[in-house]
Write a structure and sequence with these properties.
By secondary structure, the protein is mostly helical. The chain has a single domain, classed as Orthogonal Bundle (TorD-like), CATH 1.10.3480. It is built from 11 helices and no strands. The protein has helices at residues 2-48, 53-62, 72-86, 92-105, 119-123, 132-143, 159-178, 182-199, 201-212, 218-256, 287-295. The longest helix has 47 residues, at 2-48.
Length: 296
């Protein structure tokens, strides 16, 4: 009898340890996904409007050197941004604002082509706004219960909204992982990765190359390179987490007698408020934690 009691206690103890380890991993995964979402929002803010002086000062003072190591593109971007801000002076804000408007607002062109950051400009045959990919983006937002703030007169396929959409999905995935909802976590991760592939990475290289022909400072060259590096990292990172979610589904299916790790019908996500389309001002807040957590 004593041996049976000891065996039972050991089994219960091992189960408790395993459960604690699983909870810890889920917590750390959520933190990493939250940090990735915050960094995606930071990138979105870079493309939305010119930086204010306080934002420039915050970036310069906190520095980005500690974030090196994500990948080559990301590190190149950090190097360009750091070197530019190291030499900042009273005219830096105006120089960066001129670069921003030249490339991202479209006040300058290269061989008649602008670098305004709208997907349809780079994917439509005539390089026009609000073409086929624009409608695809609106549909993707709607499918996930999202829409752009009606008060913002900017087409939905602006890169800031695309990055923010990825951030929303990434943060939702983190919440799902934390609560053990592997089906919805996988849905959000798969949707985010598909969206990145089809609606950002598919045209980003051409956008990057054209924008670099129009800007004069290293800062926005760095932003572009850092964006490419981060999206490449995030795609791979979320792929690994999605595979883990699939494995968890398989374990649950075996336990319940099921025969598949895939969920055919995903539960609908909650609707968001109208104001969620507004790009948050996150450049000056907690930027020193985002990339370091994402690397963890």
């Amino acid at each position: 009898m004593q041996q049976e009691i000891e065996t039972t206690c050991l089994a219960e103890g091992a189960s408790a340890v395993k459960s604690d380890m699983k909870d810890t991993l889920a917590c750390k995964t959520k933190e990493a996904l939250d940090s990735c979402a915050s960094f995606a929002e930071t990138l979105a803010a870079f493309y939305f409007e010119p930086l204010r002086q306080d934002q420039i000062d915050a970036l310069a003072e906190r520095g980005l050197e500690a974030f090196r190591g994500l990948n080559e593109d990301f590190d190149r971007g950090i190097n360009d941004i750091t070197r530019c801000l190291r030499r900042r002076n009273t005219g830096t804000r105006q120089q960066l604002a001129c670069d921003f408007t030249s490339a991202f607002v479209g006040t300058k062109t290269w061989e008649g082509k602008s670098a305004v950051p709208y997907e349809s400009v780079f994917t439509s045959e005539d390089g026009l706004l609000c073409q086929g990919s624009y409608h695809d983006v609106v549909r993707a937002f709607r499918n996930e219960g999202l829409r752009k703030d009606d008060g913002l007169n900017i087409p939905d396929d602006h890169i800031s909204y695309l990055l923010q959409f990825v951030a929303v999905l990434t943060r939702r995935a983190g919440e799902a992982v934390a609560t053990g909802d592997s089906a919805n976590a996988r849905h959000d991760l798969d949707t985010a990765r598909t969206f990145m592939s089809e609606h950002i990475l598919s045209w980003f290289d051409e956008f990057n190359a054209r924008a670099c022909l129009l800007i004069e400072t290293r800062f926005y060259r760095g932003v572009l390179s850092m964006t490419k590096g981060f999206l490449t990292f995030l795609y791979d990172f979320e792929s690994r987490i999605a595979q883990t979610c699939c494995s968890q589904d398989a374990d649950q299916a075996r336990t319940s007698g099921g025969d598949t790790c895939l969920v055919e019908t995903m539960a609908p996500v909650a609707n968001v408020t109208e104001g969620d389309g507004v790009i948050p001002d996150v450049v000056a807040a907690d930027i020193d934690t985002c990339a370091s957590r994402a690397r963890a």
